[in-house]
Design goal:
- It contains three helices and four strands; from the N terminus they run ββαββαα.
- It has 115 residues and is of the alpha+beta class.
- The chain has one domain.
- Pfam families: DUF6145.
Length: 115
């Protein structure tokens, strides 16, 4: 059974567009800007469509795909780029996950976490 995901943001190289889900307007502007840059640069490098989404439990996932007729999309490079982004932006994704769990799911801060 596939879990539901809520898209946070994404970029589409075919339409040259960026999308940000207004449900998450409470995220600081500096983080929104970082996400915008990250998504656009990703699609400029490998093409296709790149999205960042939340799983039901608040985990952040990145997905990339391409149209069937896109001969320029590099599936191997896109997988490597996702791994690099995940590694380099680990703190950003942890903070986004915490934001989702607190403000969307209504969880409370863990006791070992400073406010």
């Amino acid at each position: 059974m596939e879990s539901k995901k809520i898209v946070l943001c994404g970029a589409n190289a075919y339409e040259m567009k960026y999308y940000f889900n207004e449900q998450f307007n409470g995220i600081p502007d500096s983080v929104k800007d970082e996400l915008h840059i990250l998504c656009v640069l990703f699609t400029e490098d490998v093409g296709g469509i790149f999205t960042i989404a939340f799983e039901e439990d608040g985990n952040v996932v990145m997905e990339t795909n391409a149209g069937d007729d896109d001969i320029y999309y590099d599936e191997i490079n896109s997988g490597l780029m996702v791994a690099e982004v995940r590694r380099n932006r680990r703190e950003l994704f942890e903070a986004l996950s915490l934001y989702y769990r607190i403000f969307i799911l209504g969880e409370t801060l863990p006791e070992d976490c400073e406010a």
